[in-house]
Design a protein that fits this description.
Order of helices and strands: HHHHEEEEEEEEE
Mean pLDDT: 76
Distance between the termini: 43 Å
Radius of gyration: 26 Å
Largest sheet: 4 strands, antiparallel
Strand order of the largest sheet: 3-4-9-6
Helix content: 40-55%
Strand content: 15-25%
Shape: elongated
Oligomer: single chain
Number of domains: 2
Low-confidence stretches: 1-18, 82-87, 139-166, 269-281
Structural class: alpha+beta
Length: about 280
């Protein structure tokens, strides 16, 4: 893949991400609107401005619409989670519990004075709680995760044309590519998976460079798919590096975080092909 093709591929990813962002904002706005309507109806009930009960057909239609907004919104959000940035555990919890709160507010606002209506609302709340647990458990995982980090929009691996359109499989822990940059320096681009068990917050990754580089490289890292986390380079040597990955909060269940790595050696002290430059007096 040459430079022009990589630019075109990047443009295609931007075009795909833009509508995905719009859809996710629409989902969040719909859940917010549901909460606003439910709160407004409840306040009118409390102050006595609304005393009549909804006809059964209207009540059933309202419950169906509320369920479609909440359940459908979660499915759409989870489906688009891998194609856009900012899908951390925090935003997922806000959307998940926001939908549940909206249903409860709407139920109280529509059926505060008629107990028989709660047969419908309790069934809806039960389905909501079942889906909410499944929604919060998911980490947006799939059988594959893109090498190009959704948080950066570029990804270190974007410079490796041989693997630009590949993915790291769900059972792969590391994938490394060694190449020579245009300036003659060696570079190692890689994607790593940091695994966490329930109750764990920090994980250590070790990546080896074999054969070793000529000198300790400049190592850059960033997180990709998975829950919110930060990664830092703890040690960097010519033969490898040690990375520390720390979650934003303790893992509630088993999960993983994708880490992208780029290790480069400077070429200013070396000629092309790795031969040292020797000054002649």
């Amino acid at each position: 893949m040459n430079g022009i093709e990589r630019v075109l591929a990047f443009d295609d990813r931007v075009r795909i991400r833009a509508p995905a962002d719009s859809v996710c904002w629409g989902v969040a706005g719909s859940v917010g609107a549901l909460n606003a309507v439910g709160l407004l109806l409840l306040m009118r009930r409390v102050v006595g401005a609304m005393t009549a009960d909804l006809p059964p057909l209207h009540l059933f239609t309202t419950a169906i619409i509320a369920g479609a907004v909440v359940f459908g919104g979660r499915v759409i959000w989870r489906g688009l989670a891998l194609s856009r940035e900012g899908h951390g555990v925090g935003s997922k919890r806000v959307l998940g519990w926001g939908g549940s709160t909206g249903i409860v507010l709407l139920a109280l606002g529509c059926s505060l004075g008629r107990g028989v209506d709660w047969l419908l609302w309790l069934a809806l709340v039960g389905v909501d709680q079942w889906q909410l647990r499944s929604f919060l458990r998911s980490q947006g995982t799939a059988t594959t995760a893109r090498l190009s980090s959704p948080k950066s929009g570029r990804g270190f691996m974007g410079t490796a044309s041989a693997v630009d359109d590949e993915a790291i499989a769900a059972n792969e822990l590391q994938r490394l590519v060694r190449m020579r940059d245009a300036d003659g320096g060696e570079a190692i681009h890689g994607t790593l998976r940091a695994e966490f068990v329930a109750g764990q917050r920090q994980a250590t990754l070790h990546v080896g460079f074999c054969p070793p580089l000529e000198r300790a490289p400049v190592v850059e890292v960033e997180t990709g798919d998975g829950p919110d986390a930060e990664v830092k380079v703890a040690q960097s040597f010519a033969h490898g590096a040690r990375l520390e990955v720390r979650l934003a909060s303790v893992a509630e269940e088993d999960c993983w975080v994708i880490v992208e790595l780029s290790a480069k050696t400077a070429a200013d002290e070396r000629g092309f092909g790795g031969f040292s430059r020797i000054g002649i007096n």
